[in-house]
Hints:
- The chain has helices at residues 5-11, 36-41, 84-93, 99-108, 114-123, 129-136; strands spanning 14-24, 30-32, 53-55, 70-81.
- The protein is α+β, with helices and mostly antiparallel strands.
Amino acid sequence: MGIEPFLIASSINLVVAQRLIRTLCSDCKEPIQESPEMLAAYGFTDIQEDTVFYTANRDSNCMTCGGTGFDGRRAICEALPFTTDIRKHIVTAGETVNEQEIQASAVEDGMVTLQGAARAAVVRGETSVEEMLRVVFTGME
Length: 141
Ligand SMILES: [Zn+2]
């Protein structure tokens, strides 16, 4: 952006990324058997055995959602606090800041990524794997 790295490092405290994800209609959502291979591929690594995955029922005459299978949306967020380590990384990086390294460092410090937040919403039964893929895995892999 043509801004000196030290200015960015010293003036930003937090960067937040946010997406809206459609929430399943709780009156007509349907349990679905997702393949363990697919779940593993998208990072569902330590889920409880009794976790139920749901999908949108688009063929219902549900009055709550009008047959769309979805009833509203919610935000999923990723918050990256600029820790001392991250500031140091940016200042010493020179012209090319390595975004992957910053993200890895933040995840190590406990940051929940957008993908992680979406997975949590899926595990809570609030949205479907399909919707998660549409919103946060587009253009990845
Ligand atoms: Zn419904």
